[in-house]
């Protein structure tokens, strides 16, 4: 089976949505709230420890009905079934998309090419558990018999962003191990990390699906050379481990086969934190917390599969995003978590969303005639309020935003939490209602300044109120956005799970790198040729 190829613009629902958009595009949300005091209860979802209020969106019940019709016309339910059953929906690479299987319970059955993948998944999980517990407890020691104090994750893209974000987000649950992440091929980056480390007490986790990624192998080689200044080749087996599919290349690097944690071809890099790529997470917070995060993701998987459209959180988010992207022509979305623990969450979502749906060719191989993808950005509140909120409030661009807040703090300082959450609620209220000219005049503002203090409002937001930031709730949150990505890709009629767009620059970089040490020169445009020559003259 393969995904159906349906041009969304040719559907009846899309055409009806366009006509509907033309009738309501200039209406102010505040009027709808005045006319319908039940709007918040009608446009909210309460599920497990999540509460989603999507009433502050520029939609009516008719909008939701038409968005549901669109989802049905593009056969979303059939696509969801293929997604979870291991069909090769990543057609351009001939792969299934089964990161969801990585968080399924042990008694589940998920077939890929007729073989149940669950036993293999739990074999790898057991290996992660044993290794993590041995390092954390001190049973496993370094080459001088000292207990480990630090862990270095060496990877890039999904092999870095996911684990780094989660380790940061769950730092409250962390143990004594200090986690470090080396990703950029910038030599200054890796050397700054090495300055903080003792080779005798550090575990190195090299994460590369193919074990050919230039940045990762360059950093891993530099680190190995640094390590061997104090140790022997035989000592590598005690402190270097790898997460990869390429067993032979890992062995050639010098890593003991017993220290290889396998990955599978049906796990895309940007969704791989649920796989052995999550080894650094397990080391940072312990396997039980890591497993709780997977449990949360599985709960969201089940919700996504089973909940009807009106109560299906990922589907609602995706369809609202399409509403703004394709009808209001909004180009970006902000993600604003009101917790410093999610400091890297927007950065993580940038890769997950923009690498997945930044496509311009549909499932028929034809160029699309509508916008796909979203520019994703954001920072934690309240810091962001003192940075880019001016643009969201009074700028000329429409920027839908997701506000994510947690009712209970982790350290229990209620005074701080009340101040944080008062800002959380106030910002979405301000974005909804704005401030009228009459309200500004009542403040006694000078007439000449009045126009500058008017807020139009009518700026859309989703509000997530979650009980507390736990490993399980974080798992739900990440999986929620993963499924949003999937739904958008289905509606836009694109393949979300390849990433050929990252390859061209890498290929050209390889050619240019050879020019730095060889006389032969490749063909370049005049600008690039000039820049290369200038660099070579001062390097």
Description:
The chain is built from 21 helices and 13 strands. It has 539 residues and is an alpha/beta fold. The protein has 3 domains: 252 residues, Glucose-6-phosphate isomerase like protein, domain 1 (Rossmann fold, 3-Layer(aba) Sandwich), CATH 3.40.50; 190 residues, Glucose-6-phosphate isomerase like protein, domain 1 (Rossmann fold, 3-Layer(aba) Sandwich), CATH 3.40.50; 39 residues. A hairpin with a 2-residue loop joins strand 3 and strand 4. The protein starts with 11 loop residues before the first helix and ends with a helix. 44% of the residues are buried.
Features:
Rossmann fold; 539 residues; 5-stranded parallel beta sheet; 6-stranded mixed beta sheet; alpha/beta
Shape: globular
| CATH topology type of the largest domain | Rossmann fold
CATH arch. level architecture of the largest domain = 3-Layer(aba) Sandwich
In DSSP terms (H or I, runs of 4 or more residues), the helix count works out at: 21
CATH superfamily of the largest domain: Glucose-6-phosphate isomerase like protein, domain 1
How many structurally independent domains?
A: 3
CATH class of the largest domain: Alpha Beta
The percent of residues in helical segments reads 40-55%
Please state how the strands of the largest beta sheet are arranged side by side: 1-2-13-12-10-11
Q: Cα distance, first to last residue? A: 54 Å
What's the main sheet like?
A: 6 strands, mixed
What are the segments in which pLDDT stays under 50 over at least 5 consecutive residues?
none
Average pLDDT reading: 96
Computed over alpha carbons, the radius of gyration is 25 Å
Structural class: alpha/beta
What portion of residues belong to β-strands?
Answer: 5-15%
Number of strands: 13
